[in-house]
Structures are given as structure tokens and as C-alpha cells.
């Protein structure tokens, strides 16, 4: 995620704060000022929110460290005004692992709430509205206890891809398999997301943001799982393009521009006697034109650092790689020599044809 402040690493995981987080702090300061609060009260409110987000980081670490036990690393944990996101490098395929990883987050908040309950003196009376209205040094940790309980309750809502939704998918997957389970969980997630958005207009506007986040999250992850299912059992050879334009290292930027204008390719493979020596994207070409290098051989501006696939590799592997790196295309080799190219458009077409055949 762009525009994030790096707070450092915990257990090797980068902790990032998204810049929109400043809005949340600004909003709190603004609200306190509107109430005519003094500096100490305002700082206490800000401190309270930061403490909540410390609990959120611990919650996300609960997910990440459990995932690590199954060999799944976490790239980063990002704090947004609506909560935290742990970016796991992949989702576990086994329902049991997904179930435990999903539960581990809210379990951390249960532990925090339990510790607070143990150490805090019991309340002498049932808290009224005024008790919850503002943070004071006297109620700080009691409020923190209630917030942790709320985090548990909120995350239990089965709105995929929120924790409760992941638990639901894992449970369904035991019986129905991952593909069908994801479909059901994502549909329910989207219905609940619309409900969040609707409720957000009448209560907390943060619900609108969470609703939008859940809606698109459910859509994207469901698509991904359904697509990977269509690709199952197919090889890169079946989805690759064999009819494409290549360049040689001596071709100039001008030659490449001509080919760019003539054909539909946006990226090129640079080949020498059947061996791939580099790749060249449209933006690299445009950059070269800006630098007045139209007569320069493409060998000087191409990327020499590129990944390749073999015709016998799984198509699903290429799909995942293309999604992750946003690399526009990969050369496909057979016995070490260029046999074709593969990009996201190719694979999407392959999926469209497969799904048309199924229905
Ligand atoms: Zn969570």
C-alpha cells in the first residue's frame, strides 16, 4: 500500500500506518475542540485511540504469527482508520489452517479483555451513558476493556473477508470444498456490506467505509478463487500466446515504436536465436523517446531481470504470479527456448472460454 509511514518491524513484520490515519486523529482533535476540551483532555482522547490501535496491531499479529506457524509469511501490517490489515503472502488452502488463523486475531482481544478484567477493580455501579461519553483517567482502562469486547463481537459478524466471514468459509469448506464455500461466504459478505453501508448513514460513518471495503474485498477474493478453480489441471502451454511480435537486441527504439503502432502488443520479448535476452514495456519505450534515444538499440533500455515460465508449469501458478507482481507478461520457455508469452489478458480469455463452456 502506498503512502504509508513505516513504524518499524515486529517479529520481522513491517508495521505501516496509512496516511488517512491522520484524518482520524484530526477528527478526534476537532471533536474535542468543538466540545471546548482543554489540551490534557484532547491528548487523553488521542492517547486512547492510539491505545486501541495498539490492540489492533496485537490482533493482526495474532493472525500473522499463527500464519507463520504454517509457513505463510506476512509482508506487512497496515493500520487504516477503519482497522488493521495483515497482508499475508498467500491465503492458506486448508480449512483448518484458515480457521485457526482467523480465530487467532479476535482471540488476542479476548486475552486483553480478560487481563483487564483481572487487574481492574470491579465497577461499583453499572456504567451509564455518561460513563461511555468521554475518556477520563478514571475510565480509560474500563473503556479499553469494552472496546476489546466490541472488537471481538464485530469481528464475529460473518462478513467475508472479515474474520467471522473467514471462519464461516473455513467451516463451509470442510463440507462443500473451498470454491463453493468462498462463493457462499462472499455472497453473504456482500449482503452484510450493503447493510453496513446503509446503517452507516444513520449511525457511524466509519461503517460506510468498512462496508465498501468488505464489499470489494469479498468480490475480489471470490473472483480469484473461482478463477484459480477454472485453471486447475491446466498447463501454461494451453493458455499462452504463440502468435506475437518479438524484437532482437539490435532493433532500435524506433523499430520497436513502429511495431508498437502496427500491432496490439504493449510489451515485447527481446530474443536472440530463440533465447530470451530481455523484456521491454511500453512505458520503457515512451521513456526512451522522452530521453531522445530513438536510435538507441533496445538492448540498452530493456529489462534483463525477468522471470520466465515453462510450458509444463501450472497455469494457476502463472495467474497468481501475474496478479502479485503486476509484471505485464512472462516469456514461456520449452527446453530453455522461447515458445510463447503469457499475460493476464491471455489467462482471463482462457477463463472466459472455460466458464462459457461450463455454463
Ligand atoms: Zn482480524
Automatic annotation (TrEMBL):
Keyword list, A-Z: CBS domain, Cell membrane, Hydrolase, Membrane, Metal-binding, Metalloprotease, Protease, Repeat, Transmembrane, Transmembrane helix, Zinc
Q: Which GO terms describe its biological process?
A: proteolysis
Question: Which Gene Ontology terms cover its molecular function?
Answer: metal ion binding; metallopeptidase activity
Cofactors that this protein relies on:
Zn(2+)
Q: Which GO terms describe its cellular component?
A: plasma membrane
Q: What is its main location?
A: membrane
The free-text note explaining how the cofactor binds reads: Binds 1 zinc ion per subunit.
All residue ranges annotated as the CBS domain in the record: 240-298, 302-358
Does Protease appear among the keywords? yes
Query: Where, in this chain's numbering, is Zn(2+) bound?
Result: 59, 63, 163
Q: How does it sit in the membrane?
A: Multi-pass membrane protein
- List membrane-spanning regions: 12-30, 42-61, 99-120, 140-160
The UniProt entry, under InterPro entries, shows:
CBS_dom (IPR000644), CBS_dom_sf (IPR046342), Peptidase_M50 (IPR008915), UCP006404_Pept_M50_CBS (IPR016483)
- Can you tell me which residues form the catalytic site? 60
| Cell compartment(s), UniProt | Cell membrane
The entry sums up its family as follows: Belongs to the peptidase M50B family.
From the Swiss-Prot or TrEMBL record, give the protein name. Zinc metalloprotease
**What's the source species for this entry?**
Pontibacter fetidus
Amino acid at each position: 500500500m502506498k503512502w504509508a509511514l513505516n513504524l518499524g518491524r515486529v517479529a520481522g513484520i513491517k508495521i505501516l500506518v496509512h496516511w488517512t490515519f491522520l484524518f482520524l486523529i484530526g477528527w478526534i482533535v476537532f471533536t474535542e475542540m468543538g466540545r471546548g476540551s482543554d489540551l490534557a483532555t484532547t491528548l487523553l482522547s488521542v492517547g486512547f485511540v492510539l491505545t486501541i490501535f495498539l490492540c489492533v496491531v496485537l490482533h493482526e499479529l495474532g493472525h500473522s504469527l499463527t500464519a507463520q506457524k504454517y509457513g505463510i509469511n506476512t509482508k506487512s501490517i497496515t493500520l487504516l482508520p477503519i482497522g488493521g490489515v495483515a497482508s499475508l503472502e498467500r491465503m492458506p488452502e486448508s480449512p483448518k489452517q484458515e480457521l485457526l488463523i482467523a480465530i487467532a486475531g479476535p482471540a488476542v482481544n479476548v486475552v486483553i479483555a480478560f487481563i483487564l478484567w483481572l487487574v481492574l477493580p470491579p465497577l461499583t455501579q453499572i456504567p451509564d451513558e455518561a460513563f461511555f461519553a468521554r475518556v477520563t483517567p478514571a475510565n480509560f482502562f474500563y473503556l479499553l476493556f469494552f472496546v476489546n469486547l466490541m472488537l471481538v463481537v464485530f469481528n464475529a459478524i460473518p462478513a467475508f473477508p472479515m474474520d467471522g466471514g473467514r471462519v464461516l468459509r473455513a467451516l463451509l469448506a470442510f463440507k462443500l470444498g473451498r470454491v463453493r464455500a468462498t462463493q457462499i461466504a462472499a455472497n453473504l459478505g456482500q449482503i452484510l456490506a450493503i447493510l453496513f453501508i446503509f446503517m452507516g448513514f444513520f449511525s457511524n460513518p466509519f461503517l460506510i467505509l468498512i462496508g465498501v471495503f468488505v464489499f470489494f474485498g469479498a468480490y475480489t477474493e471470490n473472483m480469484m478463487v473461482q478463477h484459480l478453480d477454472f485453471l486447475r489441471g491446466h498447463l501454461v502451454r494451453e493458455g499462452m500466446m504463440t502468435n506475437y511480435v518479438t524484437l532482437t537486441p539490435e532493433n532500435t527504439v524506433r523499430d520497436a515504436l513502429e511495431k508498437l503502432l502496427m500491432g496490439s502488443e504493449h510489451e515485447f520479448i527481446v530474443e536472440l536465436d530463440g533465447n530470451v535476452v530481455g523484456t521491454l514495456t511500453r512505458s520503457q519505450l515512451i521513456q526512451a523517446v522522452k530521453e531522445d534515444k530513438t536510435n538507441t538499440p533496445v538492448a540498452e533500455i530493456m529489462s534483463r531481470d525477468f522471470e520466465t515460465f515453462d510450458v509444463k508449469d501450472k497455469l494457476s501458478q502463472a495467474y497468481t504470479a501475474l496478479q502479485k507482481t503486476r509484471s505485464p507478461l512472462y516469456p514461456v520457455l520449452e527446453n530453455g527456448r522461447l515458445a510463447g508469452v503469457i499475460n493476464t489478458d491471455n489467462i482471463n480469455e482462457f477463463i472466459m472460454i472455460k466458464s462459457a463452456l461450463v455454463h
